[in-house]
Each structure stands twice: as structure tokens, then as C-alpha cells.
């Protein structure tokens, strides 16, 4: 039988990556000089490969190449930039299966979700190609005669992209495809828990550039948050830093970038909830809740962590969810019928156990699951916990499959509890009643960036803007006008008269 490590190595060598230690990309692959880190397969605990991190000199070289590339790339017409992105999308289509396997092996999500992640990149490329012909500015009517006003959008500059392990490549694509058509060059700092996938995708990005003789706009640097993350955030040569990850990381990035008056785009933690009304279709609800709670082993920022259930249907739904949780196939994410793979590492397992202890100390009742599965890898059973909204642990994001069930009587009460957490990413209501649905979506309803009806909290499409409020950071990626964040806006006023009238009727005649 082929081992996971062998499959990973085959995928990488199929893409021409044999020397894994050249793990930075600055136009060409760069021999880095920092520490060596291993990429660990969370399903076996075994190494899949190793890479060498970048040090301060490597960082400097990557930034300089990225800066130079920007100077050339910003002069390419946007539709031509779109052609490069189209080629990248085609390469991703060609290598979808291999890349899907690599995602699955490196971060432990099931193969179908690994493939879904690559599809999300392809969708993003398609969206960005369309955008490359739609970077519209408006024209305005000037208050002054024979004057014309319009706004135009220019490329912003070299962009830093910091991504997390759980969507190791899709989130890069959300940023990179749009940043590229917007005319920016970029530096990607991937999670050190998923470096091989980042290498593989960067290899294809390089190939797309080579095919069009384009400047090296897609660059890569591997390093820790403390070392490379800090450098990127504080670097005035990078006008935009897009960061996806924990609230703690995002708060730091946001503060450092704000300190130099740069622009940041933050997509941070969620603590998403589903509200189930007494009139909900329970079969639909059950399927949606289980996917939202245990998909990607509860490690999506959109994972459903809190379930508000109307008291009249709570017993039924609780039993159905407990039965579904207990019969889930947990195991090797590359195997066909498995639905739940491992957590990313031992720390994630420990955090889950800690949250379960706290939940019980705070008065919650463990209804099923929560056990650590003995043997290799970081496998756990999804946990269902009877809880109350005032339990502190339900206000935190624990990146693991724990679902807190909270009963309610009135929708208003559920909405108030729903909104009473620091995070504001995704939310959903299950109901067949129009009034309930509309109340959830109204300005007084869900306070999240995403609000769904009869659909779970996870699995958003790239056509809609993605992101959330409060501690989630306020950023929006993907979606129709995402490109504006990656561009600078310029207002132009042109006087084609022989006079010089001033705005607001101001008189200033130097001849009088
Ligand atoms: C994330 O977990 O950071 O909506 C992103 C979803 C995916 C993206 C999740 N399309 O679940």
C-alpha cells in the first residue's frame, strides 16, 4: 500500500518540486537559510516532507523582487493580467486531483473537501478573470461648468497575504487572483502547518507567469508569525496586508499595520450559530447542522459551534444529532466513506479537551462524543454538549468539532444570545416561516457578515463577499467588488473651459 508520505512526494515531484528545501519564491526559487521544519501528516503523525524557513536576508530579497515586479505588472492592461489568471485557473483544473490529495494529506480534511478547496481556487480564478474587464470607476457631474469629474482605480502595490492551515490554498486564491488582476504583486506567507500545498500551488502560479512572460508577481515566503508575520505587517513597502487566522494574530497584524497607516484586510475567528425554529424542516436541519459542525473536523472559521433550538423540537433534534455524530465514519481522510478526518495537531486535541472540561465545569452536559481516539494521528469524536448561552466557553472559538445546544422559547431571545459573542462571521436560521426568516435577516437580526436561511453556516460561495464583523475583523474577500480593497481610488477633475471657477462658489480673484 502506498503511504501518505509517498503520495505527497509523488504529487510534488509530478509538479517538478524535488528540492523541498528551496522553499521561498522570489521570481525564482530561492535557497533559504533559516531553520528546517517538517510538514506533519495529522492522520499518522508522520512527516510528509520538510522545508527550510526564510531568514531576514531571504525576506529582504523576496520583498525587493516583489516591489520590482509591481513596477512592471501595474503597466499591463487589466484584461491581459486576467489572461495570466485564466492560465493559472486552467493549470489548477489540470492538477485538481493531485492538489486535492495534497490538501487532504497535509491538513487532514477529507478528499472531497480537499477537492472542494481546489475548486474554490478555480472559481476564484474565473471570477477574477471577469473582474479584469470590470474594474469600473464612476463619472460624476461637476458643479462647475465645462468641467468633468471621474474616479479611477489604480493598482495599490505589493500585497502581503497571510493564510491559515485550515484553508491552506483557497484563501490565498481569494486574495491572489483578485490582487493579480488589480495589478498588484504579492508575497504569500502560508501556514507552517501546510507548507507543501503552498509550494505546489506556487509552482503552478510560477508556470502561469512563465507562459505569459509576466513579471514575478506571485512570491512565497515561509516563516513564523513572530518572525515573518511581524516583518510583513510592519513593512511600509507593502501597502496592504491581508491576514486570515486567529483573532489574536489578526489583532496584532491590525495594530502593526495601523501603526504605519497601512491597509489591512482581516478575516479572523468565527463563533457561528444556527437558529432552529419550531416550524423548521428537521431532516434538512439535521443534515445541514452535522456538516456545519463536523465538516473539516470543526476547523473551518465558518463551523457551526452553537445551535439555538426552539424548546418544542429540542429533544427530537438533540437525539437525531447525537445518533448522527455517533455513526460518523472517522479516519483516514483519503478513504472514500470517511466523513471526519483528524484535527491538525496535538495542541488542537488538547484545546478541545480543555474546552470540554470547562463546558462541564460551567454547567454544560456532555451528551455524546468528545473522546480522543487512541492510536496514530490526532483523531477525536465530535462532541455534542447541552449548554446555556451564558456559559463563557460558548463565547470562545475552539477550533474543534464541539457543538453547544442551547434551547430558547422566542426568536428575539435566540437572536439576542446569538449576537452576544465577540465574533460575527456566519449565521443561519432554519424555518419555513417567512416572517421568522426576515426577522433574522433584518437590521435587528443576525449581526454577522453572512446570514443564511435553510443553509448551514459553512460552505460559502466565492460570488458573495466573505468576512464578518466585530472580532472577525471587518474584512471582506471574494465577492463582486472585492477588487476595491486591492486598488487605490483616484478622483480626477478636468477643466476644459477658459475660466477657473472655484468649487463651493468661492471667489478668489488675484487681478482685482
Ligand atoms: C475559512 O474557514 O477560513 O465558507 C474559510 C466556507 C469556505 C471558506 C472557509 N468556503 O466554509
Explain how this protein is built.
With 512 residues, the chain is of the alpha/beta class. It has two domains: 4-268 and 480-490, 3-Layer(aba) Sandwich (Aldehyde Dehydrogenase, Chain A, domain 1); 272-456, 3-Layer(aba) Sandwich (Aldehyde Dehydrogenase, Chain A, domain 2), CATH 3.40.309.10. Helix content is 38%, strand content 19%. It is built from 14 helices and 21 strands. Strands 14-15-16-13-12-18-19 form a seven-stranded mixed β-sheet, sandwiched between helices. A five-stranded parallel β-sheet has the order 9-8-7-10-11, with helices on both faces. Strands 5-6-21 form a three-stranded antiparallel β-sheet, with no helix packed on it. Strand 7 (159-162), helix 6 (170-182) and strand 8 (186-189) form a beta-alpha-beta unit. The mean pLDDT is 97. The site of 2-aminohexanedioic acid has 11 residues, from loops. 2-aminohexanedioic acid is lined by residues 120, 166-167, 171, 244, 300-302, 458-460.
Topology diagram in text:
Blueprint: H1 4-14, E1 24-26, E2 28-30, E3 36-40, E4 47-52, H2 56-73, H3 78-94, H4 96-107, H5 111-131, E5 139-141, E6 147-155, E7 159-162, H6 170-182, E8 186-189, H7 195-211, E9 218-220, H8 225-234, E10 240-244, H9 247-259, E11 263-267, E12 272-276, H10 282-294, E13 304-310, H11 311-326, H12 346-361, E14 365-368, E15 383-386, E16 402-408, H13 411-419, E17 423-424, E18 426-430, H14 434-441, E19 450-453, E20 469-470, E21 487-495
Parallel strand pairs: 7-8, 7-10, 8-9, 10-11, 12-13, 12-18, 13-16, 15-16, 18-19
Antiparallel strand pairs: 1-2, 3-4, 5-6, 6-21, 14-15, 17-20
Bound molecules: 2-aminohexanedioic acid.
The site of 2-aminohexanedioic acid has 11 residues, from loops.
Amino acid at each position: 500500500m502506498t503511504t501518505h508520505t509517498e503520495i505527497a512526494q509523488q504529487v510534488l515531484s509530478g509538479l517538478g518540486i524535488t528540492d523541498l528545501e528551496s522553499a521561498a519564491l522570489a521570481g525564482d526559487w530561492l535557497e533559504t537559510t533559516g531553520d528546517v521544519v517538517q510538514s506533519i501528516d495529522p492522520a499518522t503523525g508522520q512527516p510528509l516532507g520538510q522545508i527550510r524557513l526564510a531568514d531576514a536576508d531571504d525576506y529582504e530579497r523576496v520583498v525587493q523582487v516583489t516591489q520590482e515586479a509591481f513596477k512592471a505588472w501595474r503597466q499591463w492592461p487589466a484584461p491581459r493580467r486576467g489572461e495570466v489568471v485564466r492560465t493559472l485557473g486552467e493549470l489548477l483544473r489540470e492538477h485538481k486531483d493531485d492538489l486535492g490529495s495534497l490538501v487532504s494529506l497535509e491538513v487532514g480534511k477529507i478528499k472531497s473537501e480537499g477537492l472542494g478547496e481546489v475548486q474554490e481556487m478555480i472559481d476564484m480564478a474565473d471570477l477574477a478573470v471577469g473582474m479584469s474587464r470590470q474594474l469600473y470607476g464612476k463619472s460624476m457631474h461637476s458643479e462647475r461648468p465645462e468641467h468633468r469629474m471621474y474616479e479611477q482605480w489604480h493598482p495599490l502595490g505589493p500585497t502581503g497575504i497571510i493564510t491559515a492551515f485550515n484553508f491552506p490554498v483557497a484563501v490565498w486564491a481569494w486574495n491572489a487572483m483578485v490582487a493579480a488582476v488589480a495589478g498588484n504583486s504579492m508575497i504569500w506567507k502560508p501556514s507552517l502547518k501546510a507548507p507543501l500545498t503552498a509550494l505546489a500551488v506556487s509552482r503552478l502560479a510560477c508556470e502561469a507567469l512563465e507562459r505569459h512572460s509576466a513579471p514575478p508577481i506571485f512570491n512565497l515566503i515561509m516563516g513564523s508569525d513572530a518572525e515573518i508575520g511581524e516583518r510583513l505587517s510592519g513593512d511600509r513597502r507593502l501597502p496592504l496586508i491581508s491576514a486570515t487566522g486567529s483573532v489574536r494574530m489578526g489583532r496584532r497584524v491590525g495594530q502593526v499595520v495601523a501603526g504605519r497607516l497601512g491597509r489591512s484586510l482581516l478575516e479572523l475567528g468565527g463563533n457561528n450559530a444556527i437558529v432552529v425554529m419550531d416550524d423548521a424542516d428537521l431532516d434538512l436541519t439535521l443534515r445541514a447542522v452535522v456538516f456545519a459542525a463536523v465538516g473539516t473536523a470543526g476547523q473551518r472559521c465558518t463551523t457551526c459551534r452553537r445551535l439555538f433550538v426552539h424548546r418544542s423540537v429540542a429533544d427530537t433534534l438533540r437525539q437525531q444529532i447525537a445518533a448522527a455524530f455517533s455513526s460518523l465514519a472517522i479516519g483516514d481522510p483519503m478513504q472514500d466513506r470517511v466523513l471526519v478526518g483528524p484535527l491538525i495537531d496535538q495542541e488542537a486535541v488538547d484545546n478541545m479537551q480543555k474546552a470540554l472540561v470547562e463546558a462541564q465545569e460551567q454547567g454544560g452536559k456532555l451528551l455524546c462524543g468528545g473522546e480522543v481516539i487512541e492510536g496514530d494521528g490526532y483523531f477525536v469524536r465530535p462532541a455534542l454538549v447541552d449548554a446555556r448561552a451564558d456559559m463563557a466557553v460558548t463565547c470562545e472559538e475552539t477550533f474543534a468539532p464541539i457543538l453547544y445546544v442551547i434551547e430558547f422559547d422566542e426568536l428575539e431571545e435566540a437572536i439576542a444570545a446569538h449576537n452576544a459573542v465577540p465574533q460575527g462571521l456566519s449565521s443561519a436560521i432554519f424555518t419555513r416561516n417567512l416572517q421568522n426568516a426576515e426577522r433574522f435577516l433584518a437590521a435587528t437580526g443576525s449581526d454577522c457578515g453572512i446570514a443564511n436561511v435553510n443553509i448551514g453556516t459553512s460552505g460559502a460561495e466565492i460570488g458573495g463577499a466573505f468576512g464578518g464583523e466585530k472580532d472577525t475583523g471587518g474584512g471582506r474577500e471574494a465577492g463582486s467588488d472585492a477588487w476595491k480593497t486591492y486598488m487605490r481610488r483616484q478622483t480626477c477633475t478636468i477643466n476644459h473651459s477658459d475660466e477657473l471657477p472655484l468649487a463651493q462658489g468661492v471667489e478668489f480673484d488675484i487681478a482685482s
